[in-house]
Every structure is written in structure tokens, then in C-alpha cells.
Amino acid sequence: MSLTVYPAIDVREHRVVRLRQGDYAQETRYAHNPLELAQHYAAAGATWLHLVDLDAARHGGYTLSPLVRAIKATTPLRVQTGGGVRDEADVRHVLDAGADRVVLGSVAVRDPARVAGWIAGFGAERITVALDTRQDADGIWRMPLHGWTETSPTTLDELLHVYAASDLRHVLCTDIGRDGMLAGPNLALYGYLRERAPTLQLQASGGVRDVGDVRAAGATGCAGVVLGKALLDGRLDLREALAC
Asked: Which GO terms describe its molecular function (predicted)?
């Protein structure tokens, strides 16, 4: 299986930002224009882009459709994007803007049966479910919601069981404790997910800091890896990551 590298652009108030462990109070702002950064990643050889609407993730109402249209008009990038997508009309709206895949987070945790229906209706290649998770004091992987500001009583294991029985193909899993920390990806978590649901195409996210981490994610059986802070801080060269 080949490994797909997804450079990530998180947008808040029209700016490129990164949050530390999903905390909106711990934001780093970057000088990049989101469209120009996407064009830069495309010029470096990226084929996919992971685009997140952080404002919508918190408050609902996806706002990046004009940016998606501009990226699709000026680059060959395929775009998976989400944030604030809460119902079927939202999914259709994002796809109509030109997105190749819609990322579903909170709604995928709250109502997996409904999301399974959307996957069947729109097609497995058009939906990515984000099972972003945080381990509690008892070692249980819990599921935060709404930009990681609330926590669902549903566990990662419970959701994985439901989605493994559906038509779902693409899963993005972020260990929130490692997001923005440059501490390396949680390979044990991804190995566990691969054992529990080997048919799912798993995207690793959170903590990737260098080419070695990219290779390690691929060796664990991940189908993709999302790169954020390491690219923005210049710690990781996108061309080197793509060469993996």
C-alpha cells in the first residue's frame, strides 16, 4: 500500500494557524496566505490537501467554500476538508464547492448511523470520518466534539466497531494529546486501530515531526499521514516527505 501525504492548512479568521492540543487559547499564527500556501504545497508535488475550518468546527457553518474553489481553480490538488459539517445539506454544499472528500467529525461521533447512510449515499470515496481522540485517566480513548471543546460518552472502540461494519473507507485519527506537540505520532494507537479494523484506510495525524515519523506511520500500515506544524515551522521538507 502506498502512503499518501496530506499537508494540512488549518484556517481561523482567514489566517493559517496551528492549535496546541486542540486548544483555541493556544494558537500559533503564521504569515502565510491560505491560498498561496496551498499553491506552494502543490508546487512541491503534493497531490492532496487537508483543509480545516477551525471557526466552523467550533460554531458550525462551513465557511471555506470560496477558498476550496480557488484552490481547485489554481492547483491540481485534491482536497479533503471539514469543520462544522453537521447535516446532509452541509456535506452536499462542501462537495459542490469542489471538495473531493468531506471530513466529518462531531456528527460522526454523535450520530454514526446517520453518517453511515451518507457514506452509502455519497460514496465511500467522498467521506472521511475523523475519529479524533484523547485518552482519559483510566486509559480509555474518549471522543471530543465541537473543535475538541466537549467530550462524548462514546468511546473510540465503540465507534470503530460501528464504522467497521459500514461502507466507510477513510478514517482520520488524531491523538489530540500529540497534536501540535512535535512529539512523534502515536504509533501504538495506529497499530491498535489497524488490528481492530484492517479494512479501513487509516490517516495518521498529530505529532509528526520528521521524515522518520512519516516512514514509521507507513510501516504501521497507515494509508496516509497528515503534516501540519512540522511543515509550517520548517522542520520537515514536504518534498522529502513525499519521497517516502
From this structure: 1-(5-phosphoribosyl)-5-[(5-phosphoribosylamino)methylideneamino]imidazole-4-carboxamide isomerase activity
